[in-house]
Design brief:
There is one protein chain. This protein starts with a strand and ends in a 17-residue tail after the last helix. It folds into two domains: about 160 residues, Rossmann fold; about 120 residues, N-(1-d-carboxylethyl)-l-norvaline Dehydrogenase, domain 2 (Orthogonal Bundle). Strand 2, helix 2 and strand 3 form a beta-alpha-beta unit. It contains twelve helices and nine strands. It is α/β, with parallel strands linked by helices. The structure holds nicotinamide-adenine-dinucleotide.
């Protein structure tokens, strides 16, 4: 079992770190949130007093932070930990950030002789808790193979998307599609409700029809259709609207750079930005359903 440092113990990072502990790894954690640290301590983690302290002697360093500024700040900022990391360690950043920032970090680590992969995830908080995440890795084949020592205890599907940054490109393509599916599913369910249908019956019908998709099946945005999803829990937990807006911004930037046409991604981004500006940034992204519900607002 490996000596692992885990930094960023939020909705995703917390349960991911817990799965590493359960698998028998020696896990040292750090987060800015005291509550997150206490929770991990109760699960058997060693709590570090700083990020620099956490990475001391670690073979694998995992980070799961909100956005690129946090990731670049952690490793390369004023108090950056790049000089505290063992030369033979592998850094695995699982945050969703832009490919350019991932490459910038990988290049800076490489200059110090430290290996790096970008390894964003799909599967949500449910997947993080169950250890069934999909990891989408950018980096060398050798580092991808090495990372399996820890990734296999947090995820079920491990993909090597290509060179450094490729994991992030694949991830934002996925999340752009996810946002479009969430908006479309919400729109269809509300139209059914407006026309007298029970959303559960409509969901069952569409799940056996051509409208079937991940959001309808596993993350239904209409309250009380599924148990144990954010929509049935006041849209708490899960994947925040703020983070979806961030990812759709990354998708837009990537599309501008590559000259790609993404009209539905742009529409979904505008809908999520409006939803965020209406005060819903901290709610789960399935709360976009409320944008269609006449009884809300
Ligand atoms: P979150 O906001 O719940 O957690 C982020 C954690 O990072 C917080 O606990 C925060 O205190 C900590 N943090 C921030 N800056 C720090 C620093 N400098 N040092 C130490 N800790 C720091 O976010 P999340 O939902 O866990 O998402 C994390 C990443 O995973 C994001 O990039 C997101 O886009 C991606 N992601 C989220 C989901 C999801 O369903 N929530 C799914 C896939 C990918």
């Amino acid at each position: 079992m490996a000596k692992v440092a885990f930094i960023g113990l939020g909705n995703m990072g917390g349960p991911m770190a817990i799965n590493l502990i359960k698998a028998g790894h020696d896990v040292t954690v750090f987060d800015l949130s005291v509550a997150a640290l206490s929770q991990l301590k109760a699960e058997g983690a060693v709590v570090a007093s700083s990020a620099a302290d956490a990475v001391n002697g670690a073979e694998f360093i995992l980070s799961m932070l909100p956005a690129a500024k946090h990731v670049l700040g952690l490793y390369l900022g004023e108090q950056g930990i790049v000089n505290q990391i063992n030369k033979d360690a592998l850094v695995i950043d699982c945050s969703t950030i832009d490919a350019q920032s991932a490459r910038k970090l990988g290049d800076a680590l490489a200059q110090q002789g430290i290996a790096f992969i970008d390894a964003p995830v799909s599967g949500g908080v449910g997947g993080a808790k169950a250890g069934t995440l999909t990891f989408i890795v950018g980096g060398s084949e050798q580092d991808f193979e090495r990372a399996k020592t820890v990734l296999a205890h947090m995820g079920k599907n491990l993909f090597h998307a290509g060179a450094m940054g490729a994991g992030q490109v694949a991830k934002i393509c996925n999340n752009m599609l996810l946002s479009i599916l969430m908006v479309g599913t919400s729109e269809a369910l509300q139209m059914g409700i407006d026309n007298g249908l029970d959303p559960k019956v409509l969901s069952d019908i569409m799940l056996k029809s051509s409208g079937r998709n991940w959001t309808l099946e596993l993350y239904n945005p209409c309250p009380d259709v599924l148990p144990n999803v954010p929509s049935s829990n006041g849209y708490q937990g899960g994947f925040m609207v703020d983070l979806m807006v961030k990812d759709l911004g990354l998708a837009l930037e990537a599309a501008l750079q590559s000259g790609s046409s993404t009209p539905l991604g742009a529409l979904a981004r505008n809908m999520y930005v409006s939803h965020q500006r209406a005060g819903n940034g901290k709610l789960d992204f399935s709360s976009i359903f409320n944008a269609f519900d006449k009884s809300v607002g």
